[in-house]
Amino acid sequence: MIIQTLSNYLTSANTTTQSKKLITTMSTFIIGGNAKTSSKLAQLLHASNHPIVIGSRSGTVAQPEGVPTVKFDWADEGTYGNAFETGAKIETVFIVFPPVYEVMKPWTTFIDLAKSKGVKRVVQVTGTASIPGAHDNAAVHTYLADSGMEYAILRPTWFIGRDSPYISMIISLVLWSSIRS
User: Fold this and answer.
1) pTM, whole model, 2 decimals?
2) Bond into 64 cis (ω within 30)
C-alpha cells in the first residue's frame, strides 16, 4: 500500500520537481540488513526507487541485488562511518537495537557520528521494556530524544511477522519527512 501511495505521490501533477528530486536523492541507511524487518524494509524501499544503503556485520546481504552494502558491526567502531563513505546523502537511519550488553557507548558514538554527517531522523526497533529511567534501553532513548534529531522508537510486538501490515507504518516513518517536504 505505501509503495502505491509513494508511486502516486511521485507521479502526481501537484508534486513539484524539487520535491520529487528530494525524495529520490535522500537515502536511508538500514542497519541490520539481514534481519527480518530490515530486509523486508530494504526490499520495499528499493522497489519504490528510494535510495538505500544496507549495513550488516558481514557487509553483504542477499536481497535486494544492486544495493550498496557496507560492513557495520556494533562491536567495531571502525565500521560506523562506512555508510557515509558511499557517497549517499543519508537522511534517515533505520536501526535494529544493538545486540550488545553495554549499549550506551556504541549507541552514543554512532548517533553523534550520524548527526555530524547530516542524518535528520532515526527509526529504531527496540525491546518491549523501554521505560524511561529503567535501564540502558531507556537511557538510549533519552539520548536520542536529547539529540535534536527526529526519531521514532518501535517495539517489535507491534509488527511481529515478516509480512505484517505494520511494515507500511515503518516505511511511512522512514519516508515521512521526504514526503511532507
Assistant:
1) 0.74
2) yes
